[in-house]
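step: validate -> pass
step: tokenize input -> pass
step: predict -> running
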Amino acid sequence: MNQNERRRFLIRELLQEDVRYRNMEIPEAEEEQKQLLRGLMNIRPPRKADREFLKIQDEYLQAETAAKGVTELADLVPVSEGLYLWQGDITTLCCDAVVNAANSGMTGCYVPNHRCIDNCIHSFSGIQLRLDCAEMMGRQGHEEETGKAKITKAYNLPCKYVLHTVGPMITGWLTERDCDLLAGCYRSCLGLAAENQLESVAFCCISTGEFHFPNDQAARIAVSTVREFMRQETSVKKVIFNVFKDLDKRIYEGLLRESQAAERSRR
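step: predict -> pass
step: emit ->
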């Protein structure tokens, strides 16, 4: 099968799963097909799929990621010892683990084609990830607490694992409690990575964007919490701050210069 054939197969199978969509026609345009496929994956409840579907889905998603281009951690230049700043699509980064800014349900974003990081990670890892998360949360028996983290396989992403964490959602004035909870997200992810003997972790900008945490203060908490953790002797030796917006890139560049100077003066 080529990519077009795989995409049509996956769309047909997903349409047949729900009686509401069985008579829907598959659009001819490639981009419209991609949007339809992603949207159907986004709204699909966590459940098993047959072996043929998963095989074709995996081939399709891996080919799509390869076409976008995979970035190897070895090709990045550290800003300082063990710390990296990288602007790009976190779903194309090859490292031990990437961090997903999840919601408390922990099974991904169900809004079709939403551009949040939670939606992107679930879309490009494949439907197995949602089922994994649902089973994990079923065993836990309650929603995930803010500031905590869970680990899963990454399936079709270039990384090995996904660290899912729930950041604080800001609805009014930023409080000290909000800041403590955000720092907890970073500590929980790093602690979980160390427990699993991982060496490299890539963080997205947790709680910014949809959760409305101010970008500059979120970045300051991220850098200081990661630097504090990195002073310990653990398996985690490389941390990547992944940004998408130019604004966040400028903020992190300034903070990392500041923290590097502070580290030098401390020695």
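step: describe -> Helices lie at 3-17, 30-43, 51-68, 117-125, 127-140, 176-195, 215-230, 246-266.
step: cleanup -> pass
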